[in-house]
Structures
1.
Amino acid sequence: MAVDLSREDKITHVPTHVGIILDGNGRWAQRRGLPRLRGHEAGAKNIGPVVAYLEQCQVKYVTLYAFSTENWKRPEDEVRGIFSILQKVIDSRLDEVCQRGVRLRHLGRLQGLPERLQASITKAVEQTADNTGLTFSLAFNYGGRTEILDAVRRIMTEAVKPQDINEELFHKYLYTSGMPDVDLIIRTGAELRISNFLTWQSVYSEFYFTEVLWPDFSRDDVDEALLSYSSRQRRFGGL
Ligand code: IPE
Ligand code: IPE
Ligand code: MG
């Protein structure tokens, strides 16, 4: 007799590291006749539940792309609004997240962000540094090319010898130092591109694109992405 496995049971292998390009906040708001910032607020509210569910699914690293080095091109009030929403999220959730054993990391440049936000991010990273649960990285003011250039600058500053440079050493200079490469990248919001996310770390990632807008991205959508990942055969150039 055929056993009807539930969707969760069919997920036979879970990615260690999931990256999410959270997109579609603005369109979510516009479709409701609301200002774009309301979409960013709704998107921010969805971060906690999705990350908690991924943690429950045994994912060990979650990296969320929330503000790119290119997003500075947006109108100043939207940029300021996004900063203020993130500030509120960190300040209100930090203690609870820390108690859950989550380790927070920041990927990107702090420089350029408002000083208060820099202080909140630094505090969150320091307060959770010894936690051993899920590693939750926030890619904020992040660009994959900037990350590589920042690494090159540090390598040159430290006068590393050319013959000592290899992939392993180079990775130590990236924002993601010590983290495994991203196994699965999920992009919400219907666009089929990477938009400067995890350039170095995504060379062998699997991709999952969905039209669902980020504020609507649910546990069922997570299951679908994990199920899709689970059905793939990764070869890394081998057979
Ligand atoms: C993603 O939503 C959040 C950021 C990039 C900051 P968008 O604001 O890009 O939403 P759309 O793509 O305009 O719908
Ligand atoms: C990608 O979304 C960046 C983040 C999710 C932070 P964008 O909305 O900025 O991407 P493009 O401009 O459509 O490529
Ligand atoms: Mg967008």
2.
Amino acid sequence: MIYHHIALNIPISDGLLTYAHPEALPAGTRVVVPFRNRPQAGIVWANHVSPEIAAAKILNIQTAFSGEPALPEDWRKLLEFTARYYHYPLGQAVFTALPQGLKEAKAVETPEPPLFYALNGTGRAQTPPPARFHKKAALWQALQHSDGLTLPALKRVNSQAAKLLEEWTAAGWLETKQAALPVLRPSEKILNARQQAASEQIQTAFGRFKPFLLYGITGSGKTEVYFDAAAKVLASGKQVLFLLPEINLTPQLLKRVEARFADVPTAVLHSRTAAGRRTQDYLSAMLGQAKLIIGTRLSVFTPMKNLGLIVVDEEHDGSFKQDNELRYQARDLAVWRAKQAACPVVLGSATPSLGSWHKAQSGAYQLLELTERAHAGAKLPKVEILNVGRLKLDNGFSPQALDLLKKNFEKGGMSLVYLNRRGFAPALFCGDCGHTFGCPNCSAKMVFHQRARQLRCHHCDHREPVPFKCPSCGNQDLTAVGHGTQRVEETLRNFLPQAKTARVDRDSTAHKNDWADLYRRIAENDIDILVGTQMLAKGHDFARLNLVIVLNADGSLYSADFRAPERLFAELMQVSGRAGRAETAGGVLIQTQLPEHPVFAAVKAQDFRKFAENELAERQMFNMPPFGFQTAIRADAPNVAAAMDFLNRIKAELAPRLAGGVSLFGPAPMLMVRLAERERAQIFLESASRKDLHHVVSLWIRALQQNKDAEIRWSVDVDPQEM
Ligand code: ADP
Ligand code: ZN
């Protein structure tokens, strides 16, 4: 018997168990093995291993799907890295990366290789059909100018293609083959000088690893740069992986892809792709049949035969990080993959993540910049910052905001009322001098706990009573932020009863057709005012939109989460970019009680650099990412005390064994302490050295694994995005 390590979808240690088979199965083969008396799908991870347990106890592999293509080595290496880096059982990481069909204990169909028709030598020597039979001539030309085309592509040229191909085959002019270089239509747009320069830089890196940060304001034509570079890669026969946030995978974008890459075999992978389809697309990418793979974070695990370029659009977007189970960051894995495949990777954004920006400043990434809007007439929005500190607000609206909405409605414009809902923990600040309350022990801002009359740090769990006056100016009237936007729609309806308002949030866009409906209504001028959260900030192009009102930006500036200002800035830039995508310059009004805050100055100037310099300087002072690295160890239980106890016990147990170089903060209850009937606490491990941090996290995991208390669940989040 030959012994094999099989990766299984089980939480036991690393998920690799040993099974026997009469002959060696190549690594990557899908198999079925018995596990706890049930057949389970698994992937051969290694063969000829020496068994760790008595040979008699080792069970046999039941079925090997040797007819299916094996999962390739580079893919297995990617999963090994992922499991190691994120401290997650390998077997479960592998199964996260597989599409449904390959997780099941039954065989799947391998996608048929496409058949390409091409003129052979004799064919090419023929006189083409006379031009007056123009459809027939067009088909001939299409064949003449290509390396080979599939029947569907030829039918798009001439609906009678099947019949003509039959004739020409009979005449001995055609050959068929299983692979051909894709046909790329010339772009309808001529790149401007900056776009051209950016694309050329990317092209000089073809065939080797090089990361780029493409920083370009909204509408500066980043997508056209990706397309241009992608077209060059595809023309050389290699594959392109294009990652983007789910919310940006809009019908508008897919139409642009379709227009540009109509004859390129493309797979679109997102959460709504049907399972069967996803499995087939996965396999066809793996076999090199699909050339352009577009998808959301999970597609970073798509095996590719011949990867030539990776693009990560809106690289700063939080949705690239998975926030449960395998907590991977797809953008970071994309860079790792590019290195593995020796190809360039382009991270693009109008508001890059500070991590990527820092790498571009230090030279680790090459910075490419697009500084102007591509569309000749498009203008930058005019941003106004309104100090509402002394104003009486009507459910969050200033009189100025209501007046602007009214005027815009009367002019027939469309407005957007934007609510900032993220990271909302109430905070205390001084309305006179703007003083905020930072933790005396660490870099976090403290949260206001009204009932306990306390300020608490959710990073290190420092607590103190609410002060009576502002420590910097003596003002006794301290204010809490974080309220007053519950009744936005009602307020609007009372104020402008004739205007048609629509709310856009996770609920109103949960169904497949919701966006389509929304677009239709907008196109038919059936919406005057959109009300929504960050969902609206991204990707969507509403030509008529010319006024944006931001009601409550401040919450983020006092947030205990040190990334909140970064997210706020990105959202404000994006949301203001929504105004005036077309010829009319849009207006943006931001209400705030802190008009002097650098974030607003940077938004007003539409200046990411300014923001980034400020924010990075602050992070550096406290060794926060990207200057240091973090891992969060979380525990949840029916009540937070049990979760805190559990973490405290391990902390005490490990204390004598922890070397220097890694700091520990907490445990502290999480900002959003309750989730799904459970309460959560966490400890932060922080270090300037990834290696030291990794080592300490491994020690923690070994201790966590000793947990026998069924009430307690724990998890590890490497490079956490939330506090
Ligand atoms: P971004 O991805 O940076 O937001 P897009 O690529 O979507 O920008 O471009 C914004 C708009 O400008 C789109 O309508 C696009 O068609 C147009 N555009 C981009 N590049 C050019 C160009 N070189 N010539 C003309 N129009 C362009
Ligand atoms: Zn603290």
